[in-house]
Design a protein that fits this description.
globular, disordered N terminus, about 240 residues, Uracil-DNA Glycosylase, subunit E, 9 helices, alpha/beta, about 45% helix
Length: about 240
């Protein structure tokens, strides 16, 4: 009996690591919903919407920015603004710049699969980026650009007020934590950040776009996802 369970788990791990095709197989159990009613410290939804609108106007008013000047849309964030989980990627790509929404196309497909592997739907969490405009030719944002936009990002986190922050990619890591070393040496470790006297647990992992280019690193992302799932369980933020 024990041997059968272990074999099923190993098979699932292997499929997650090696597969990014549309026919990826997931657990068919119902997706749990987040328990947001008990979080009495949350800003109410109307206030959050107003604060997010003001933040978007503030970002859009930025001047002398090559990123803004070469983009079609500001991509602020989307999903459940009352979610206990906030996921932050690096920067919008071509499809995100066109749509004004996060994680589209092949990158979005992979992220959806990663989240579903730990029984989470993307629309039930809140997603954003370290940089709100698409960098020209999808280049990596510079440290100066990351620092400039990190002010907005930290305000963004405070408005959403999540229980867990997931940073995907080195730009998101640098923007929130100030760490600019190799992400491979920092991922998979729980860290903490303090914003406006509030502490947020943070998990650093690889960005989905990176995993598409280097699929051999999916095994590490799967380990990170399992740690996130375990922390969610420990904090009892889903029912």
């Amino acid at each position: 009996m024990t041997k059968k369970v272990i074999n099923q788990k190993d098979k699932f791990d292997e499929e997650f690591i090696n597969t990014i095709e549309p026919n990826f197989i997931f657990n068919n159990k119902p997706i749990n919903r987040f328990n947001i009613a008990k979080n009495i410290d949350d800003t109410n939804q109307t206030d959050k919407i107003k604060l997010l609108q003001e933040l978007k106007k503030h970002i859009n008013s930025i001047e002398n920015c090559n990123l803004k000047d070469n983009s079609n849309n500001l991509v602020l964030g989307d999903g459940n603004i009352n979610s206990p989980i906030m996921l932050i990627g690096e920067a919008p790509g071509l499809e995100e710049d066109k749509s004004g929404t996060t994680f589209k196309g092949e990158v979005g497909d992979l992220l959806n699969k990663m989240l579903l592997a730990i029984q989470i739907k993307k629309q039930n969490i809140y997603c954003s980026y370290a940089i709100n405009f698409r960098p020209p030719e999808d280049r990596k944002p510079t440290s100066q650009e990351i620092k400039r936009y990190s002010v907005f990002l930290k305000e963004h986190i405070s408005i959403i007020n999540p229980k867990i922050v997931v940073l995907m990619g080195s730009s998101a890591m640098e923007a929130v934590t100030g760490i600019n070393s190799k992400i491979s040496s920092e991922r998979g470790k729980w860290k903490e950040i303090i914003l406006k006297n509030k502490t947020y647990p943070v998990m650093i992992s690889f960005n989905p776009s990176y995993l598409i280019r280097f699929p051999e690193n999916k095994k590490y992302s799967w380990e990170d996802l399992k740690k996130i799932k375990q922390r969610i369980k420990e904090m009892k933020i889903i029912t």
